[in-house]
Amino acid sequence: MKKQLYLLTFLFILCFPAVSQSQRTYNATLSDYAYRYPVNYLEVEQEGQKFKMAYMDVSPPAPFKNPQTVLLLHGKNFLGAYWQQTMHFLAGQGFRVVVPDQLGFGKSDKAEVQYSFHQLAQHTRHLLEHLKISEAVVVGHSMGGMLATRFALMYPEATTKLVLENPIGLEDYRRIVPYRNLDELYQEELKRTETGIRDYHKTYYTSWKPAYDEWVRIPAAQLRSPDYPLVARVAAHTYAMIYEQPVVYEFSQLTMPVLLAIGLEDRTVVGKAYIKSEEERKKYGQYPQLGQQTAGAIPNARLLELKGVGHIPHIEAPEQFHKALLEFLKQ
After folding, report:
1. Which GO terms describe its biological process (predicted)?
2. What is the C-alpha separation between 41 and 108, in angstroms, rounded?
């Protein structure tokens, strides 16, 4: 009987093989991709339309009362789920952790609207109000660092502390990178391939590990979706937002304590491929110098320099990053 069961199982596998990662398809809002923590949705309005904004809200274990809230803001080529290690760590240390997928990213709606850091900050503030959170420590990585800066400038009363983890926008890309209009950016997005996405992600780290491939497989699976043209159009809009809306000139206006965490091997420049000269490309995205320059511009900043770490310390060097983050939160 057992032999017959094994044979039937074997024949079933042969006839109905599992869908491989390379065949998987995700729609615009990643409906079939499971985050580690429960996802909720908030309705937001923009340009006379209503959209769903996804978010995670994780509370610490029961013994912790009146927890401080930490708001985690993701980068452009990512989604809230890539904060999962940091969420687990912070909740275990007694913090409430709120992680939105910004409109146009992750499980949130891909809205064809004008994107601005001001509007994203307003949506984020609306989320905190919805959750009855009056203030939070705001942590932003990469593009999330630009958004976190804008949020802190707009809502200083709601920002107790600010953490900028390898933020982009430490230099004015308009002075560095040749301009591309939305149609040109959209056509570039349509040319994306899984290999190209992986090659770009490899520049984020000092050495590649199989675990990092998770953040490649997700956008690669969207390439195969009928929704991808919409995803591509939104990606073009958010690139334009980064390019056209610098925050670099306003760091001196930040009034709250700031932790600037810099992986010293990072060389990220948004639109670097559009710079024709290799010699010119090497002049920019020099995070060792940009980190010191930015820390000097912020009145109450502490600079954390992480040697041998690239663009994403919370993934590449989580123990170092989490230790420094916790020390800053408890000061």
Report:
1. acylglycerol catabolic process
2. 8
pLDDT at 62: 80
Task: State the Cα–Cα distance between residues 161 and 243, nearest whole angstrom.
Answer: 26
DSSP string, 236-304: HHHHHHHHH---GGGGGG--S-EEEEEETT----TTGGG---HHHHTTS--HHHHHHHHHHHSTTEEEE
Homologous superfamily of domain range 37-176+246-330: Alpha/Beta hydrolase fold, catalytic domain (3.40.50.1820)
Residue 8: pLDDT above 70? no
Query: Which tokens sit at 270?
Result: 């948004």
Q: 72-122: per-residue pLDDT in tens?
A: 999 999 999 999 999 999 999 999 999 999 999 999 999 999 999 999 999
Dihedrals φ, ψ of 306, to 5°? -110, 110
Using CA atoms, how far residue 329 sits from 69, 128, 129, 314, in Å, is 10, 19, 22, 15
Positive or negative CA dihedral for 236, 52, 313, 315? negative
Give Cα 193 to chain centroid, integer Å. Answer: 20
Q: At what angle do helices 143-154 and 117-130 cross, to 10 degrees?
A: 70
Domain residue extents for the chain: 37-176+246-330
Q: How far is CA 78 from the centre of its chain?
A: 4
Helices (H) and strands (E) in the chain, counts: 12, 8
Number of neighbours of residue 21 by Cβ within 10 angstroms: 11
Maximum distance among all alpha carbons in the chain? Answer: 76
Q: How many of the other CB atoms lie within 10 Å of CB of 26? A: 21
